Amino acid sequence: MNDTIVAISTALGEGAISIIRISGCDAISIVNPLFKGKNLEKVKSHTINYGHIVYKNEIIDEVLLSIMKKPKTYTKEDVIEINTHGSIAVVNKIMEILLLSGCRLAEPGEFTKRAFLNGRIDLTESEGVKDLINSQTELERKMAVNELSGKVSTLITDLRDKIVALISNIEVNIDYPEYQDIEVVTIDKIKAEVYNMLGQLRKILKLSEDGKVIKDGIKTVILGKPNVGKSSLLNALLEEEKAIVTDIKGTTRDIVEGSIIIGGIKLNLIDTAGVRASSDVVEKIGIEKSISLIDEAELVLLVLDSSEELSSEDKFLLDKTKNKKRIVIMNKNDLENKNLYDEEVIRISAKENIGIEEIKEKIKELFNIGVFLGKNLTFFTNARQIALLKSAIESLEEAKKGAEENKEIDMIEIDLKLAWERLGDIIGANYTEELIDNLFSKFCLGK
Hints:
Layout: E1 5-8, E2 15-23, H1 27-31, E3 35-36, E4 47-55, E5 58-68, E6 79-86, H2 88-100, E7 104-105, H3 110-117, H4 123-134, H5 138-149, H6 151-175, H7 187-216, E8 218-223, H8 230-238, E9 256-262, E10 265-271, H9 281-296, E11 299-305, H10 312-320, E12 326-331, E13 346-347, H11 356-366, H12 369-373, H13 383-404, H14 409-427, H15 433-440
Parallel strand pairs: 1-7, 8-10, 8-11, 11-12, 12-13
Antiparallel strand pairs: 1-2, 2-6, 3-4, 4-5, 5-6, 9-10
């Protein structure tokens, strides 16, 4: 990190303003000769300065230049942000000049990577930055802000402190048994401490798994036999003509996808090929895909036809989805009712847009969205964090089992150390270069 990096921090395109960000030990010395205004070596930190970018006696643009001197910056390095007019030609020209003057084009996420490596933020806070940039709903934004603020990291840091305090007491007892004034660590004390920590971690895990659904969206599969109105339902939910709708059976042969926001949570909707016996090779492939998606679905919208009697295909799908979180929807409610299925259903007419709001309310009820809105949103939301959290819980459960079986205390200590290390992996106390490179490569340029 001895070089100085540069990137465009705003979306590239026409606009009122574009921002070019520079960070590194030579940021000021590289930009100062190009800036005709105040001497950047002498201006106060965290000030905005008016002037022009000039190169080889040619004025490139009139700019406002923000200067932030280390260590109180995003990267803990000298940082300069050039606010230019939002012209592609202007921005590209200034970028070209900066690269010729000694800057290197930043890799995706490299500014945040430097903030992490320089100790300004931990790994969870770094991931919060990316989550905040990518947030699409108000709940996602709130969760990302909690990550970014360090509230999530504090949960883990506090638990690691408790584990290390217990480990320290165990080691003192083992190494200095003759000391009379130290606290004796008994099996009962270890049990009590581990039970307490497991309770906290399990609570965090439950919230985190729910939070991951909010962040990633609910994978929702629309199922039914051909011509029951699956595509009409998709279009009604999305409020657009996303899927082709005809009276011809088998029109939908492949999956059609779309997303909506319900109660602050995203639904990833998948319209599938109608399930029926078919000799058509292409349609059969679509039907097989439809059935395979049942296992992956977090919610199934099973559509039945109100104007027809319950068919063998309907019965097959009702049985296939009985253990899934599902809503049974009786479509074509505007026609004569011939379907005698008497379990809980929502009756709709997708064509007439009747009953669609009732489906949305049922989804909120199934996923406790109203309750979730009032919860503390301080938890983890990505697969890496949740996997490490589960690993830490497994190690603590082994420590608990060892205590219950009266195993040697130093054996129990091994499991406590493993739990401490896994929790450290979450916040980046332990990391590999490969992990860091992979994580920050998913960030946008300029951040």
